[in-house]
Amino acid sequence: MAAAGRADPLGVHGLLVLLYSGVLLAVVLSSLFEREPHPERLSRYYDDPIKVGVALTMIWAVFGMFIGVWAAAQLAWPSLNFDTAWASFGRIRPAHTTGVIFGFGGNALIATSFHVVQRTSRARLADQFSPWFVIFGYNLFCLLAVTGYFMGLTQSKEYAEPEWYADLWLVVVWVTYFVLYIRTLARRKEPHIYVANWYYMAFILVVAILHIVNNIALPISLAHAKSYTVWPGVQDAMVQWWYGHNAVAFFLTAGFLAMLYYYLPKRAERPIFSYRLSILSFWGITFFYMWAGSHHLHYTALPHWVQNLGMTFSVMLLVPSWASAGNALLTLNGAWHKVRDDATLRFMFVAAIFYGISTFEGSFLAIRPVNSLSHYTDWTVGHVHAGALGWVAMITFGALYTLVPTLWRRERMYSNVLVEVHFWLALAGTLIYIFAMWNSGVIQGLMWRTYTAQDTLAYSFVDSLVAMYPYYIARTLGGLLFLIGAIVGSYNIWMTARALPLSRSEQDLPVVDDPATAPAE
Amino acid sequence: MRELFHRKLERSALGFVFAIIAAASVGGIVEIAPLFTIDETVEEAPDMRLYTPLELAGRNIYIREGCYACHSQMIRTLRDDVERYGPYSLAVESKYDRPMLWGSKRTGPDLARVGGKYSDFWHVAHLTNPRDVVPQSNMPGYPWLARNALDVDDLGLHLQAQQTLGVPYSDEMVANAARDAMGQASPDSAFADGVSERYGDATQISSFDGVTTQVTEMDALVSYLQILGRLTDAAYRGTVAEEQVPNPNN
């Protein structure tokens, strides 16, 4: 790549790949001379890749959220890009979305999936090398993506911006991930596959399908980063939003529901309220979501029948979504005193609430007449962040605070006060953000369609922009609080891993060899 | 009995995998495949012309700078959209767009029909520092576009890739891509005639940024902005009230 793309930004990426693999190779080689590991390790869970995954999750969280705050500030104070190309809004905006969705969310999903699949199957990860390949390969993809945007490399397909070579690389990583996951499941000592694993499997499989179909493109040459998608115009719009909406469904919902189904009952020490409800919501989400993408294209040149299908299925989606949220909240029955006292569990409780709110809002916004007001405005941005901050990030923090002490074998987190501080920063930040965006979105939508008594449009576009400035400042503040919370959380996790003594009690379930002794689910 | 079946399904990882793929495939297949087979999906517009190499290069700069993050190119079938921006967008108008740039957010106004509404000079001033012409604007400035020379050498490869994907560029257009890009931004030069010959007399040939000595990224981007909504006038025909195509010389 470095050689072929000398005259193109592709060359820079080639060098980056060389450097990245060089460093990893050096690490691998330097361990060649260490002592042979004890064979007994094979009877334990393989947790080292998860530790690295957790660290990367928090690094990406801070990076992605920082870029987000910066982008938000640029909308209020446009000179904050200092007239540089790489820092202008159009380039850092995908760096923010990729940083938080794929960097933060993706690493959290991979790390927790490795943890959950081992615990619920009571089996060690199926391979020694491939977990590392998945984690570092995936992060190379994220790195190529984000550095590419700063240089102006993008396909412009939202949430699928990376160019063809990064996309191909992700396919390789993803297939490895899938094979590793299925092989580990095949080793399970429990007869039934636990519900969290259904969601992780749906996440891995469907994201693969979406990624491949949406990213089929023809590069202008193998030495150039630029490519053209095979999908033209209206078909591209449909494919893109079929992808875009289901990236929300299977990346930002299914995978995080998997976290919810494992870490919430674990922390609350209560069994899942209803097994039947979890079956209903799983298949409902898997089937209905794939139809809903066209609600992003209401009143556009997309044929009417597709818009109507998208709207109908979006409304129906409320049933499985609320079944999941309700199932999670009812699981907390009998543990409400813990929700009051334990900020970690409260993170997950609030996440389930926000999941319920934002799925309701999603179905609502998908109704055509509502969408005519909300579409293209900040209301959509507010809706996304109700889901992203309130649901995805909160469930992740709750899961991480449950996972980290077990992983490093500590009694508890370094500081429960800091978890509490993080919780309130995150909640305040989210609320400020979404209230600002609800207000600005509704005002903007109304101003665009207000008519004077003489039947002419009452406001010019720039009038509606001027009305947005106070809200853009408020949302920057909300985002900043959330970012500070993430930094506090990272510090707390770091100190837990570094400063606390090893716990003496064995909290983890052991790997079982004999299926006869394995307790039923 | 469904319960019993699901308990069985839960015991087979591969069974579960196939069940997920089956359940998740239906929606996409039903909604996407017919878009290629139902003829009414994309209207006919025999007069529609192709992007010139310069406009295509400008489009790629539009993509590179992430303009689509704040500007849509899709006028919806809503009264206020149509009165603000012009006749609603037709599917045919983006049939050569790979990818489409319909957008999802209007932090700035819709650009589907911005072509011809402002002068070249206005666009250059606006892109260099938006607050010089719209004091309330929060759009970033793009002063470097006027400094960067446009890379015209690869344009043949771009057109060729589009041709492979089915965009009706002729071999002659592919072969002359770099010349035509230079020509469109250099009126009175020897290259300029070929542009009108290959892409039609209505093609705007102009020294977009006011500098004729070199072809810059600013030239390309402005040429693209000026063609938006003007590849075909299909959207102006057959509407309830016949509308006028904007004329930049008016």
From TrEMBL, chain B:
Lineage: superkingdom: Bacteria
Any matching Pfam family: FixO
InterPro entries (alphabetical): Cyt_c-like_dom (IPR009056), Cyt_c-like_dom_sf (IPR036909), Cyt_c_oxidase_monohaem-su/FixO (IPR003468)
One Gene Ontology MF term: heme binding
Transmembrane segments: 12-36
Keywords: Heme, Iron, Membrane, Metal-binding, Transmembrane, Transmembrane helix
UniProt keyword Thylakoid present: no
Keyword Membrane: yes
Domain Cytochrome c: 53-229
Protein name: Peptidase S41
Organism in which the protein naturally occurs: Pseudorhizobium pelagicum
